[in-house]
Amino acid sequence: MPCTTILVGKGASHDGSTIIARNDDGAFEAKRLLAHPAREGASTYKTVISHLTVALPEKALRYTDCPNVSKANGVWPACGINEANVAMTATETITSNARVVGADPYVRYQGKKGRGTKEVPGGIGEEDLVTLVLPYIRSARDDSFALRAESGENGGNLSIAPFTAGNDSQLFRFVKNLNSSYSILTHASAEACLVETGYASKENGANVQQWENTSSSCQRWLLHTEAKPIRGDVNRDGSLSVADLVLVQRWLTRVPDTTLADWKAADLTGDSILTGADLVLLRQALRAA
Does the pTM exceed 0.70? Predict the structure, then answer.
């Protein structure tokens, strides 16, 4: 059975290991196992088949993959495991038939056709998925971040970090004050410290830290409820309409000068990218409205 992957989680293996096995079809390319080191800085990746350059974020995890030995026909990493013990395979045949391409149009690479013409990069393909996803995901549901106290002492900074269930440094207690403001107690300090703006600064970019209670206004916070966005309202006009559907369709087909005021409103599959699948769900939502 070609392009088949078997994944064994740590709870199912005898010694707690995560095991991944995969076979490949195509031209019977020779494969190799590579271990990629963790990377702090941002980088770029250029696809072989579609000639598309993709900006990669910083803080990439260490991971393994199994690319082709020769890149003549593409990279095709196929599968791998990262240092967070997340395994991934990239068996997504994106050009199977007209129905698949109709739901998720594949943008093909267009080479130069003589003087006065320009190369038109294609889209992200099956060969690129492991490289673009595996170094950055810590969980199959890794889509949330939370505030974190970096220590339990006075002056300890607060930062944004991936949410980890049961992490004391990401637990806080909100206490309402008589003036309707809130004090935020950090669990990392055993609730001895409050969240504050450092040195009571009122400037942009002021540091946020924790400090023992000083009864200062820099330790008082106001809470505001953010209006829930309307699903599918990519133009932010306050409602879901045909105009939103047309905008998403134009954006997916790369019509020049097409912009989305809120692209996340159309991410109905919740996978943090816009594809033809989102367009199908958006059309269904419009019919049901």
Answer: no
Of the listed 3, 66, 193, 218, which one is catalytic? Answer: 3
Dihedral in degrees, nearest 10, Cα atoms 99, 255, 111, 29: -40
Q: Yes or no: say if 106 and 95 are a contact pair by the CB < 8 Å rule.
A: yes
The label of the residue with tokens 């829930």 reads 228
Catalytic residue check, 218: no
CA 101 to CA 107: how far, in whole Å?
10
Q: Encoding tokens for residue 176?
A: 């309402």
Question: Side chain identity at 102, as an amino acid letter?
Answer: G
Contacts of 57 (CB under 8 A, 6+ apart): 42, 136
| Residue that is written with structure tokens 């271990």 in the block | 35
* Nearest alpha-carbon partner for 22 in 117, 178, 130: 130
Confirm if 157 and 207 have CB atoms less than 8 A apart.
Answer: yes
- φ/ψ region of 221 (left if φ > 0, alpha if ψ in -120 to 50, else beta) reads beta
DSSP β-bridge partners for residue 221: 182
pLDDT digits (tens, 9 = 90+) for 19-78: 877 776 666 678 888 999 999 988 898 888 888 888 888 889 999 998 888 888 888 888
